[in-house]
Amino acid sequence: MNATAPCVILSAPQLAENIGAVARVMANFGLADLRLVAPRDGWPQPRAWASASGADWPLENARVFATLAEAIADLQLVLATTARPREASLPVLTPRDGAGELSAACQRGWACGLIFGGERAGLTANDIALAQAIVTVPIDPRFASLNLAQAVAINAYEWRIRQSAAPPEGFGAGDPPAPQRAVIGLYEQLEAELDASGFFHPPEKRGSMVRNLRVAFGRARLSDQEVRTLRGVVTALSRGRGRVLAKLAAREGVKPA
What we know:
Alpha/beta knot, 2 domains, seven-stranded parallel sheet
């Protein structure tokens, strides 16, 4: 099977010139699928084409999304690039190791992507919680800031040189990961039921608790069948709770809430 290529997702990019520079780097290394999440100045921006220096095709075909969840909905493997893991308990890879995972996954026909954060603050903890692993460039901690195009260039270069390499032994055995739209649907169903049951307590810790749950499931790289099974489990538990509440209410002689 010929390898497909990962997409590049820019979350909340600010400067059109940087988007253009990213498109130029993508063209250098054979990447073409550019996705923009809530670009600050809207899209399209003529200054991006000027910075791309003729690498127009990623810009002309770029797709814009309101949220990161929408941008990754069709992907089966998502890696988040950040200099700061932000306490997420996900595997932390070098760009070389990340490229190996992406290359092997793409050769199996999986839809994959790399997420890059905006210029000012990078990715948020909530963004990272939607990924299955973190990619961190091993740069000098005295100056750990890379500009957006540099970060994309390092990862795209590593992707390019992996194209002739064989997938790691045993990689991808079994069912492929579910598309992220299915995984996010599981997250939202589970979180709604946990809200209803009062699990998120105290309320101010809800955000971190949600992220921890998402990270735990993200590490598992659930298949589509596993997602369906877990959603069925959540539904069954919810219905069971309703029956228990109804029995208790009947015993007390009151109508259930």
